[in-house]
Amino acid sequence: LDDLARLAIPTLVMCGVEDRLFLRGSRELGEALPSARYVELDDAGHHLHVESPARWYRELTSFLDEVIPATDR
Fold first, then answer.
1. pLDDT tens for residues 22-72?
2. Do residues 48 and 14 touch, judged by C-beta distance below 8 A?
3. DSSP letter (8 states) at residue 19
4. Residues 52, 65: contact at Cβ < 8 Å?
5. Burial (CB count within 10 angstroms: exposed 0-12, middle 13-18, buried 19+), residue 61
6. Are 23 and 15 in contact (CB under 8 A)?
7. Whole-model pTM?
8. Count of beta carbons in the 10 Å neighbourhood of residue 26
9. Cα→Cα distances 46→28, 32, 43, 70, Å
């Protein structure tokens, strides 16, 4: 995790609060990456795109809108 602090690339880290396997690691990853946006979905577990598709889509497209200029699409 210490080496991740050197990465300066926009990263979206998203996890469901019911994901018992990845929640802690996702939080740590979100904290370790300086350019990360960390999002927890309250109504999801491991399969975010299935369990909370509308919120997952909003978070993903919002992030992409910020990191990819409209002229590059």
1. 999 999 999 999 999 999 999 999 999 999 999 999 999 999 999 997 777
2. yes
3. -
4. no
5. exposed
6. yes
7. 0.86
8. 18
9. 17, 21, 10, 31
